[in-house]
């Protein structure tokens, strides 16, 4: 971990601890004000608890040109980004993606799409619908390892995070509290409930909160659709394709639409917001992830609408390429932040429980 980033974050946290003006803004400040000294583990926990809403920066009287030159959102964003790279497994891949996120995402999607098209030229798989392009067994052989690898990688990373932040034994109450905060994006609502200042210092807005919710719930619906299709295939011997009034479609289509709308809005807000209040070196990686998630959702919807046309093999290749890229890159993209943030929320529930 980079010592200079933590030294600067420690300096700013100590000033914030003395001021306490922002105590009700989000979960960061009650946790920050409880500490007298800030260890690397404390700072890592605070950084991952921060949602970068930036309300504290615009309310702060000690920002530049004041001699204290506080920019807590940026300081915590840089520590947060460094912690993801430090805890990631394998470690070198995280650094590479954060520096070249958009390029790597595009190259990976195109590479896998070309590979799937090349497999198509070898001849029909002999099935129906999508399976006429690529057999079910081939899809399982390709995507099962691609699904299991990020789970293993993230599990190792979270274990490192938990040890690094001195996490304690987790109880059901900790999990329920953390999931409650994550479900309604409590920390993106601001201390007053009117939202945050992410895109405009003079305006409170819930736009970023709603966009995150659209992406999160859209992704969960799509995951549920995939799970429903798996159950239908193996438990009821009902292989794809499925009609509109089936669980995979009733869950997947709304989920895809929510993901498209959410990622478009996140990209718009990210382009509008001040880059100097975040980890500027990770901007490309974060935008690359948003665009990759957008492509996964959009290609899935187009594949459904064009499934009966001659464009189906091409759309299937693009969709499978984007999904495979998404899975393999998950531990090194912004997708990993959801797991770290949930871990930070659980750790914060432990902190609050210790005060009772």
From TrEMBL:
Keywords: Membrane, Transmembrane, Transmembrane helix. The chain crosses the membrane at residues 101-119, 139-158, 214-235, 247-267, 288-306, 312-332. Coiled coil: none annotated. It comes from the Bacteria. InterPro entries: Citrate_utilization_prot_B, NarG-like_sf. NCBIfam families: CitB. This is CitB domain protein. It comes from Roseibium alexandrii (strain DSM 17067 / NCIMB 14079 / DFL-11) (Labrenzia alexandrii).
């Amino acid at each position: 971990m980079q010592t200079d980033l933590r030294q600067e974050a420690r300096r700013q946290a100590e000033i914030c601890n003395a001021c306490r003006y922002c105590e009700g803004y989000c979960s960061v400040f009650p946790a920050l004000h409880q500490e007298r000294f800030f260890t690397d583990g404390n700072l890592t926990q605070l950084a991952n608890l921060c949602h970068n809403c930036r309300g504290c920066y615009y309310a702060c009287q000690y920002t530049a040109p004041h001699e204290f030159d506080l920019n807590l959102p940026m300081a915590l964003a840089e520590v947060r980004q460094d912690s993801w790279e430090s805890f990631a497994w394998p470690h070198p891949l995280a650094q590479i993606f954060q520096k070249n996120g958009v390029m790597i995402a595009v190259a990976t999607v195109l590479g896998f799409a070309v590979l799937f098209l090349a497999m198509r030229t070898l001849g029909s798989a002999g099935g129906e619908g999508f399976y006429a392009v690529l057999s079910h067994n081939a899809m399982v052989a390709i995507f099962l390892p691609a699904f299991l690898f990020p789970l293993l990688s993230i599990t190792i990373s979270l274990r490192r995070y938990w040890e690094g932040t001195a996490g304690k034994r987790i109880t059901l109450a900790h999990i329920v509290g953390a999931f409650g905060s994550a479900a309604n994006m409590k920390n993106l609502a601001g201390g007053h409930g009117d939202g945050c200042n992410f895109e405009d210092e003079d305006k409170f807005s819930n736009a970023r909160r709603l966009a995150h919710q659209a992406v999160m719930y859209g992704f969960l619906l799509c995951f549920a659709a995939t799970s429903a299709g798996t159950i239908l295939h193996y438990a009821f011997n009902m292989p794809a394709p499925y009609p509109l009034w089936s669980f995979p479609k009733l869950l997947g289509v709304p989920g895809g639409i929510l993901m498209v709308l959410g990622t478009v809005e996140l990209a718009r807000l990210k382009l509008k917001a001040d880059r100097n209040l975040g980890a500027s070196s990770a901007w490309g990686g974060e935008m690359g992830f948003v665009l990759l998630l957008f492509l996964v959702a959009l290609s899935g919807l187009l594949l459904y609408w064009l499934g009966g046309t001659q464009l189906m093999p091409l759309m299937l290749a693009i969709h499978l390429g984007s999904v495979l890229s998404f899975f393999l890159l998950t531990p090194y993209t912004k997708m990993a932040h959801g797991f770290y943030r949930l871990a930070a929320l659980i750790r914060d529930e432990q902190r609050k429980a210790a005060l009772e």
